[in-house]
Amino acid sequence: QVQLVESGGGLVQPGGSLRLSCAASRGFLGYYAIGWFRQAPGKEREWISCVTASSGSTYYSDSVKGRFTISRDNAKNTVYLQMNSLKPGDTAVYLCAAGVPGACRSKEYRYWGQGTQVTVSS
Length: 122
Description:
single chain, mainly beta, 1 helix
């Protein structure tokens, strides 16, 4: 079992950047595919990115491709989401989730963090 803690959210102006972290307070993230999701008020949760457990292959939704970068540092037991060129439409609670090694394709996520708020506003 793994426990996930997100951090790094905050208020940023349009065009700015933030780096979110997803750390494991218990367990080893390297065994899992890690996905990032976001949920804005009144909207469904949206998958935005994933990194595989083994090869570190990465996947992105069209809404963030070219602006966001997911990476993992197994030595630090942490996965990052670098977010650049932020827009007001990126405002949401961002959550990370750990899944089976093939979760980037199967969407089988088993463990979820509590989320961190990102607000993009001038």
